[in-house]
Structure formats: structure tokens, C-alpha cells
Amino acid sequence: MKVSTIQSELNSLAYHGRGIIIGKSADGKKAVTAYFIMGRSVNSRNRVFVAEGDAMRTKAFDESKMIDPHLIIYYPVRVLGNKTIVTNGDQTDTIYELMDRQMTFEQALRTREFEDDKPNFTPRISGIIRRENDGMNFAMSILKSAEGDDSSCERFTYAYSNPIAGRAKFIHTYNGDGNPLPSFEGEPKTLELPDVDIDALTDLIWTNLNEDNKVSLFVRYIDIASGEAETRIVNKNI
User: Fold this and answer.
1) What does the alpha-carbon distance between residue 109 and residue 140 come to, in Å, rounded to a whole number?
2) CA 164 to CA 28: how far, in whole Å?
3) Residues 162-192: b if buried by 16+ CB within 10 A, e if exposed
């Protein structure tokens, strides 16, 4: 299995779109997650991340320039008990609400499809972290159109039990720039998680995202034993 550094993977493309990283810290004590957004259009770039309790939402940086909030304004992060949900759209709420009614992560996402932003049909990417019995597991999902056909949805879920310390999985929406944008393909990528604190990791990710296209970044360290969390948010628009 190929294991990439964060630097090399983030620098491999100028445009990843939106990306989710989930893994276990090098010391094995923390669940680590990051979510970033990139943008090409004025509407996509006119955003900031805002903390709201243990959740996080997107917000227009300049309300007067917001063209269409559809697919732009949502909660990327919500917490349900011992579970942290991270996604690139309003499926965060779907997962939260249906899991609260005893459905599984996969079952909740079977009610959703890729985004309706023809011709890109942007994939919906989602992740969930569970802390239990002094351990952690996580899952990732991607919902994408089949070969750009909006009548056919492909759903893939990847589950990781007792993940290896110092490793993370990385999934993103696009395989680069283009028109239409090419969707992510294959399994989530494996990344090395360096033995650093949350500030150093936040700086590492933010510095290596394409300068022209990066918009906002969220990083969270969750103590696996206690559930205590540290969060960092970086916005290009400040």
C-alpha cells in the first residue's frame, strides 16, 4: 500500500475541491480529522468556516456577494454522542438525524445522491469517527455519478477498525481541474500523520493547499479516552 506524506499529496493537484482526512495520531491517543474547501468561482471562494459549539458551519464572508447558497452553506461538522460527522454538504444533517433514529451511517447515506450541480455532479464525501471502549474506528463514504450520468449513483463505503497510529485516510471530491471536473476515483488515499500537535498539523495542511484555490480549513484532535477535543479553523477571508 502506498503511504504518502501530506505535503506530497496536497501538492499533487492544484484543485482537490473539498477534502476529508481522518486518522489516528502517532501516539495513538487522539482521533484526528481535517476538512478543507477550495473554490474556483467567486461564489465558492466567498466563504468562511465558523465554529458553533462542537459543530462547524460555513458562512458567506460577504453576504452582498453571495449568489446562490445552494450547496455552499451547510454544516460540515456535527457531533452525535461519541460520534463526529464530517462531510462536504448538507448530508451532515441527514447522517445526524437518521443515526439519531438508530440507522447506520451507510443506511443514512442511501437516502442521498451526488450534488445536482450539472455538469460536475460533485461527489458527496462523508466521514464518521466513533469512540468506544477506549478505542476508535471510522468510516468514509463517497456518492458519485456513474461516468457523469446523473441517472446512476454509485455508493462506496470504507470502514476502518482499530486504525494504525500515525496513519490517516484522505478522500476528496475531484481528481484535478477540468470542465466538467473529474470525480475522485478509487479507495481513500493513505497518508502519514506526523507526530505533531494540532497547530503544526493545521499549518502543514494549510501551507500545502494551493494558494489560489484554498478557502477554509478545519482541524480537530479528539482525545480517544476522554472525548475532549481541540479545534482549529483557518479562513483565507479574514
Assistant:
1) 11
2) 8
3) ebeebbbbbbbbbbeeeeebebbeeebbbbb
Helix and strand counts by DSSP (H, E) for the chain: 5, 14
15-57 per-position pLDDT tens digit: 999 999 999 999 999 999 999 999 998 889 999 999 999 999 9
DSSP 101: T
In three-state secondary structure terms, 48 is: strand
How does strand 3-4 pair with strand 189-192? parallel
Q: What is the pLDDT of residues 89-142, one digit of tens each?
A: 999 999 999 999 999 999 999 999 999 999 999 999 999 999 998 899 999 999
Q: Domains plus CATH for the chain?
A: 3-235 (3.60.20.20)
